[in-house]
Every structure is written in C-alpha cells, then in structure tokens.
Amino acid sequence: MVIRNVREDDGRALLEMLDHLRQGAKSSTEITVRVLAAADHDGVCSAKMLARVLDSAGVKFLVTPVRVNTEIIDELKTLELDSEVKSVVLLNCGASLDLQQHLVEHQVSEDVRCFVIDAHRPLLLANLSQRNQRVIVLDDDPTAEARGERPPVEEFDADSDASDVEAESDGEKENEWNPDGSAANAGETDAERRERKRLKEEARQEKQIQRRRRLNEYYITSYFAMPTAMSIFKMARQTAAPSQDFLWLAAVCLMGYHDQGLLSEVQYNRLAWEELKDALDSSSDFTLGSSPGSTSRTAGDPTPDSASQANREAASDDEETREREPKRRHVSIPSRRRLRFESELRLSLYKHWSLEESMMHSAYFYGTLELHRDKGLRSLKNFFATAGLPPNEYKQLFRHMEVPLRKSIRAKYREHGKAYGLTESRMFLQQFVQDLGAMGESTFIQPEISCSDVVHVMTALLTSIPSALSSARPELLPTTSDGRRDTAAINKLEKEAMTNNFYQAYDVVLCEDPAQLRDGLVHAIEFAKAVQSLARQIRDTKAMHTTRQFRWCKIEQPPLLFRNTLAIRRLAIWLLQTLFAFTPKGEGAERPLLVIVRDQIRDTYICVGATPAKYSDQDEFGHIFRTILRADKSFKYRYDFFNKSCIEVAAEDFNRFLELMNESF
C-alpha cells in the first residue's frame, strides 16, 4: 500500500488523487468512480463534499453507504464484472480491511485503484505493506504527527525468519570470499563457533521480540485521526470555487465527532479554530447556497435508488437516470444564507424546542443540576425565576418567546448560571451557526440553526429503524417456509433501511429543504427523549456495574433504535457525562464504559465501548476484544465494524465473553 501524508505539500496527495480520478474518466462515458462511504456523520458529509467536487470535475460516480467491512467486500465483488470502474474511494472506512487481498481474491481488474481516507486508528498493518501497490492510503493524523509516531510498516514487512536464516547461512559458508582472500573465521575452534552461533541466535530472538512488542503496542489503543470530511475540505478549497457549503459540511462533521465523544474538547476547539475559523475569515464574502431556486440535490449527487444494481446500470444514461430518480419538490432557497462562528449555548435543539425541555435533555445541565432528582427540578425552576423567565415563556417553543427574552437569553445564562454551579466554559461552545433567512421564517422553523442541531438531526435519521424490523412486532419479521426468521431477508431489509437513512441525512445536512429539515428536527427531539429516558432507567434500576478498570451496563429490552451502534454510542456518552463528568459529586471516578444491548431480532448482544473524552486517544476496548477472541476461538461473534470498540456476540456466548472481559481489562 502506498501511504501519502495529506499534511505535507499543502495537501498535494489529495490533488493527485483527484487528478487520477479525472484521468480515469476521460476515456469513458460510464461511471468510473465508486465511492463507498461509512454510514455515519463523517461518511455523509465527506460524500456530499466529494460528490460536488467530482461533479464539477466532470467525473461520473456512484455513492454507496456501508456499515461494516463485510459490505465493503460485497461491493468489491461486483467490480469483477464492471470493466468501466477505474477507482474506488473509501470514505471513513476500509483501512481495517485487507483491500489488496480482496481485490485479488475477487479478480478485480488490475487497473482499479483504491483510495482510502479513514479517520479510524490504528490502521491494519497488512494494508500498509509495501507489496500492496493498488491501494493508496491518504493519511491525515495530527495526533501521531505531534507524537512523532508512525505505523510500524517496516517491522511488519520484515520477514524475520527468511532474513535471519539467510544471514546465518551466509555467515556459515565454508568458502566465503573476503578482501584478504582468506576464509572467514579461519582458525575458529568448535567452542568459539558454538558461542558465536548462540550469540547470533540470541540477537535474532531479541530483534524479533522488539519487533513484536512494537507491533503489539501499535494495536493496543484506538483513536480517531483527522475527520475524513476535514481532509476532503482541504482538497475542495484548492479545486472548487469558494463555498461555505463545504465549510458547513466540515463543521458539521467535526461537531459529530465531538458529540459522539470521539474527540476531546481540546482537539475540537483546536481544529475548529485553526482549520475552519480561518477558512471562514478568508471567505467572508461568500454565502451558502448557489442561487435562488436551487434544490437540495446538485447535479452528480447520488439518489437512494442508485444503490441498487439496476440503477448502477442505468446511471450511464443521463436521461434514463433522471426518469428513475424520485421526483422532488422544487424548493425556493434564498441565495443569501450567512454562516458565522460564535459561542453557542450547549442546549440540545433549544431554538427548535422549549428551554425547559432542552435543559432536561442536555447532558451538562442535566448532570450539573441533577435533574433526575426532585431537588434538581426545583433548582431548575429557581434558575428560570432568577433569570426572569416566567413559566409561560420557558415552557413554550423558543421561537414563540418574547423577542427581548430571546435576544437576551445568553446573557441571562452567563449572569445567573454561576449561582447554580453552571460555569460559562461548560455552558457555551464555539461552533458554526447558519442563518436560514427567509426559509426559516416562512416555514415555521427558527431562522438559524447550529452545527450541533444538525448533528442531532443526522444521528436521529441515521439510526432510524423501520417498523418492519421491530422485534416488538414479530409477526412483521420475514420468515422462511418452516416458520423461522429469515436472516437473509432481514439483512436485506436492514441494508435498505440503512441506505435510505443515509440519503435522508445526505439531503438534510445543508439545511436546504425546509420540509426535510422540519421532519428531521422532530426525529431529533424524539431521539433525545429516548436517550434520556433509557439512561434514567439504567440509573433508577441500578443497572450500572463496576469492575476494577471499567464499568458496564446491560439492557435486555431496549427501544428499537438502540440496535444501531451510533445510538448506543450516544447513550454511552450521555451516561459518562451525566453520571460522572458533569455531576457535582459524581458516582465515582471516570472509567471506560461498556454498554451492552440485547438485539432480540438476531439473538445477540451488541457491545459498544466508550472512553471518557479526556482519554479519547487511549481507548483500549478494541485491543481487549481482539485479545478475548484469540483466547477463545469458540465464540460466535461479529467484529467487522469500522469502530473497533464495537462488537456483536451471540447471546449463548455472552456470559463467557463478559467473564473474559473482566479478566482481561
């Protein structure tokens, strides 16, 4: 695999990738680029951005969302019969899969090249081997760069046995030539020869031990490097016309990492200021959106239908493709939508909800005021009274509050929050806010929306589960002729739902369609309620357990949406924040947390590990999971998630798995 550092030469590696994609498209009128994007915030934002860049470059492409490595393999299999595709771009996925091996195994044309831009660390060292020339990893890792670290590719590539045997053989040649013309080691006694061989063997073993130690150390901790959309943003700035749409996509992606606890607040602030705020200052004359009358879909953007094989074949015919696309309502979008970077209250969706409900569903306020207790609820009412907010104001939608109160809301929190243990640095977060202009005013939406709001919307959309997959209604689940659950049919339904969810998030992220945005906000509010309610249940039933090194909780009958690892991760972060990080006294020291959710449909347990944000670059769950799987090979499990702190274990094996977790941590 060829590794290119995106942080060198002003991101030239990204430009070279784009040039390769352009060259591959010159000799064909068909789709020449396949884009496989992770079904998460980063995958949506980076795919949206890359789609616009490729479209402006005249490159025909197809975007397909993927959840796990198995789905990447399935997509690579389809390339065996597709001679037109020249490149595969993997966005926030693929670096933990031996892509070279699968390209060869599935007889994909030797002309096809894979470009990987993936924030998940560590990278699979088998992928980084110098023998892999068909896969190019675009590495953007400021964390490793700051530490002076690099992936141990040379150590991995070293064939210790062959090289040492060859070296030993060379040393033992009876007639070895040397400049003096005399035999090497002439006059050496048998004892000296044995001693020399012993020392050489010890040196070989020590070298091997050091190499294996280096490899093991590399795999011990998991963390996230530069978000993929942030890397694509660097390329977009150099290749496309200045657009704050790209800046907004990068900002939403970055906020998604912060919201999911994948980046510490220090990392978030550094990237927001150094990478994005500077870009905003240098392009302050530009606004979001292209022109009045534009729609939420740009030319070249993929459609949900394009995920099917039929539409892959039809995509080469522009007219036929347009006929197959679902008809979308034409929405008039104002051309002057401003983007700004400012200190915003950390209140979940408060501009689209009531202040009271928002505080009840915001981790910092919920934890600090202890809103799970009657004492905390009294403190909340006292805070509103002290701040001069009567019940008829804080209980109604924010946009319906009196204008003077809305305009002074931040000042009120700054002035009166301290008396209730609320600190300004925790109450506010610097983030990007988009002014929706006339669109918001004319469609009953608050005329401005923050990156945090959009992240909540995307999380809710990406984790949505159709009623056909509800384990609460088993009669709706597909069955085989003998009455058993049809696993293949269920997998197909899940893939279709995931694809539909991805494109809903894809369409809403730029906030161009008021109807989609309004529906998304409704879903986001319901999702926030579900997280808070389930966390309250875990607290009330004392379901949290503590071991020496980590905590864990198991949920046997979760709401439907918690079959998705993104939703479970969000629950885990809420628990870490409200039980420990933001609670005045806390319930013990912060420790890694393992949230275990029963999947009634598959009869498995989905395990998602989360590390406190300040230790976000030291997550060891992936290493522990791999250690357990090596120790007991009889487990039935699924471990092909992009985030290696997630694993799915068969219900019958789970108790043994948890016992080994306690022993290994």
UniProtKB/TrEMBL annotation:
Instruction: Identify the InterPro entries for this entry.
Output: CDC45
Tell where it localizes: Nucleus
Q: Name one GO cellular component term.
A: DNA replication preinitiation complex
Chain intervals with Acidic residues compositional bias: 154-169
Q: Which Pfam families match?
A: CDC45
- Principal subcellular localisation of the protein: nucleus
Gene Ontology process terms (BP) = DNA replication initiation; double-strand break repair via break-induced replication; mitotic DNA replication preinitiation complex assembly
- Which keywords, in A-to-Z order, does the entry hold? Cell cycle, DNA replication, Nucleus
Cite the record's Polar residues compositional bias ranges.
Answer: 283-298
Q: State whether keyword Nucleus applies.
A: yes
Locate the region Disordered.
142-210, 283-332
**Key word Ribonucleoprotein present:** no
One term of GO molecular function: single-stranded DNA binding
Segments of skewed composition (Basic and acidic residues): 144-153, 190-209
What does the similarity note say? Belongs to the CDC45 family.
This protein is called: Cell division control protein 45
Annotated organism of origin:
Polarella glacialis
Which taxonomic lineage is given here? Eukaryota, Sar, Alveolata, Dinophyceae, Suessiales
